[in-house]
Fold:
Amino acid sequence: MRLVPLVLAAILAGVSVAGAQSLGWKEYTYPQYSFGVSFPEEPKIETKPYQTADGSSADARVYSVARGNSEFVMTIVDLTEKQTDEKTVLDHAIKTLAQDGEVKLDITHRISAVYGRQLSIASNDGTHSSVAVFYYKKRLYQIAGIAHPGENATADAIRFQQSLIFTNNAANRTPLEPVFQVFGRVFGTNN
Structure:
């Protein structure tokens, strides 16, 4: 019976530590770009050039916070003037993100009905990035939680990457696409 109070105390201590780590995080929404994301403080907002897959440049809106050994970066690239497709945009983004490291995880990712890719990238300098990329409304949405060496910041990097939401009944797939994918697997027509 003495074990029960100890276990309860340990659980409560863990909850209070988790609660203390959550302090300061707030969701910021940007309706004009149809997304929301949680940052540990007010993000800096800049416009920067982004080199697209065809070598041309597009405007990127970058929301970022640097805190300790962590960086939290949300990038939206306006591709409305470009003739491109989802696969090309996402493949180029992944190649660019992984140019100084190794992709350890690359899986399909979904937020509501917006599909993209989720990545874990280990850079040559010891940095670890938790990343997701999406092509939605003719824009590249790229979110990266970056944990630099020297401090265990990986949990916050993942937390940031997982905080992204799309607003306005977001979808970049048709409602019947999952049905088509099942038929493709059953009948061997998916590539």
Summary: The chain has one domain: 26-187.
